[in-house]
Amino acid sequence: MTDTLSEYFTVGDPIADTKAPDVPIEQMWTKHQFDSALVNPNNRRKLDVIIVGTGLAGASAAATMGEAGYNVKSFFYQDSARRAHSIAAQGGINAAKNYNDDGDSTYRLFYDTVKGGDYRSRETNVYRLAEVSANIIDQAVAQGVPFAREYGGLLDNRSFGGVQVARTFYAAGQTGQQLLIGAYQAMERQVAKGTVTEYSRHEMLEVIIVDDVARGIIARDMVTGEIETHLADVVVLASGGYGNVFFLSTNAMGCNVTAAWRAHRKGAHFANPCYTQIHPTCIPVSGDHQSKLTLMSESLRNDGRIWVPKNAEDCEKDPRDIPEEDRDYYLERIYPAFGNLVPRDIASRQAKNMCDEGRGVGPKVGDFRRGVYLDFASAIERLGRPAIEAKYGNLFDMYSRITGEDPYQVPMRIYPAVHYTMGGLWVDYDLQTSVKGLYAIGEANFSDHGANRLGASSLMQCLADGYFVLPNTVRDYLAKPQARITEDHPAVVAAKNSVTERIDALLSINGERTVDSFHRELGNIMWEYCGMERTDEGLRKAIDLIRSLKDEFWRNVRVLGAADTLNQSLEKAGRVADFFELGELMCIDALHRRESCGGHFRAESVTEDGEALRHDDEFAYVAAWGFGGEDGAPVLHKEDLNYKFIELKQRSYK
Amino acid sequence: MELTLKIWRQAGPTAKGEFATYEVKDISPDMSFLEMLDVLNERLITEGTEPIAFDSDCREGICGMCGLMISGEAHGPERTTTCQLHMRSFSSGETVTIEPWRANAFPVIRDLVVDRTSFDRIIQAGGYVSVNTGAAPEAHSVPVPKEDADRAFDSAKCIGCGACVAACPNASAMLFLGAKVTHLGELPQGQPERDSRVVKMLDEHDLQGFGGCTNIGECSNACPKEIPLDVISTLNADLRKAASRSR
What we know:
The complex is a heterodimer. Chain A is α+β, with helices and mostly antiparallel strands. Chain A has 18 helices and 22 strands.
């Protein structure tokens, strides 16, 4: 590492994941489960399991652990477990069933995922994911998830980006909702049986660690404001991703990093925070008031043509008045082989380039027009309007509702948006973080997608973790229970006090600016310098900007109201405070990784023709960051990625 | 656009509530209804007034968390969720009344936020298929006719927002319940518990304080996911069959 980076972080000891047994990869998971200790059914009900979050990972884990007979406590910030953000997933869920006899297999799903992740994920975890994927479909079908069916009564499949087989199972454009309802219902069944207790409108604000072992959480009842202590034998974080650090993203409004970040501050390593997936086909920002962005299915790029005006002075014109010769179909021009179907990262980056050149379309937001046209005029002419309606009708309706424009008459406008974060808490093969007794599953961990996530893979990973992996790995840990502690233990009292003090601090600043104004400004910094394209210079600037904004936040934020009531400003303030710290770490991670891979594009690391260039000799590792203390620099622990089964290759799109 | 907003303010579950009037200016027709409230809240905070509490999460019409009575209509004048309602549906100068869902089974927590956990308790009473993880048969071992799967899906689209209850003069949750009974009842996986499910869920529905159904149909009209009214017929038919079989 060069000296100029050493002011941002220190390098700690390398780490390794040594839990996967040293046998051929297809035998690892079976052997590992057999080697793990069991907990007899009578002992399970004496063991308390805390699960934070009820998305696909959290709900499926709560249901499964409840069925096994553990005493599960489930915490979530929404009013109902059914509302977790997994519900918004549209496209589908992958599984290696080979129902279409088109050459799919566990190994092929494993291979596609590792390659799609730009060779920055751990082979052992990904293989297991592929291995259990088929069971997920069986489980969901048995629960009554209404997947799309063929006329013969069997399940239908479709194909998704980055793969050459049809392995995606779906329920119209609401696959996430249907899978989540299945897991939620399984969980509610356990609530009725008494094995799962729900804590709705509760937010985890601290993890309790006693003698380096996680023993419970401090949570705030968001209705009464009560700060509660919940002790447990194991703590599982299924609290989702952190894309809302960008303020505008496709994440739900409440998605936040607090649970994971509080755990990080207590010793859990945070891995690869800079890996953010940007989705190219979102509805663009319409004004400064905008609260979030809405994703349109990537399938639109099959028939829509993407263009911007050749001349910046045409950008205000009605697109229908711009003649063919004045349009720049830039993807077809730059990537003639792939055209409008280039991968997500390329489509996103080129749209940004066009807008940065001043050729964006749609309303001006700030100084820029941030939008490009997705035009169906030629497809409608070629195929007829009814064919387009049949294929994309619901998406056109959604677009029309949000923008007030008719996409059958005027080209749609799209722009890239932050969608998914591949980074998260570092976990080993057992999904245990670097803190004993603290586990992380689903999007909250870093493990399976590497530097880029393939479509329809997130639902698969969340349910794999919750239904099949965690319940099996956590047994071994629970078989040797820790000695009981009580609420008056000094570490418990200290954790509770720190939460109360922090809330009091936020309420007492009484400054001039709203929480949202800080969040929006942080988001702008992150998007500008740690978004689609990163540079050494920009990231250094971003770190300075974030530090001074964070400083201002703690001096000048205005949080009204009291602690002992429903107080949405207070909730947001705590989350944004954590986003500042995470945002800084994301920039440091992006700064140190001087290569381009997947969702991390460093402008300094490109091939001769401008594509992303990895440096496997230097960066084939997981960057697991340790907390460096309140004013200390983060500590970089490297976990080398050893590719034993798949050969590392440069991805090519041309 | 300029609007006069009459908004229900209630400091807590037991506090007395009242309408407060706010004038909003510079409202863009492209804003969603909730973004309009965001803008108002930013102003209120700057003025030193506590912002209006309201529920929202995904803001793309699927999580079911948002729900407001807007000028007497559940989710407002369009058939959609509040988050997908845009200000272009209103005209400048209009007065808009904003209230929380009103139903005994949905007590107010604060301002426009209500407690809908009674819906979860209805699901807990039987809105599931009893299958433990790892015990599932191969997915293709039970074919499901496409028509049945499609109808199950149409009922499964319910997002649990509570608009049906808010729109019903009796505050009945029969559309919500009927949607779940139909979803699982259309599938082979849902058959073994079909009788007990409808009976237990209906008992829980009444216990939670929801009203009876008198076939008014406002529920289905207000449903942002267009759950058809005939799910209530399915529910009633299932109930009759369950009663006759239990004799």
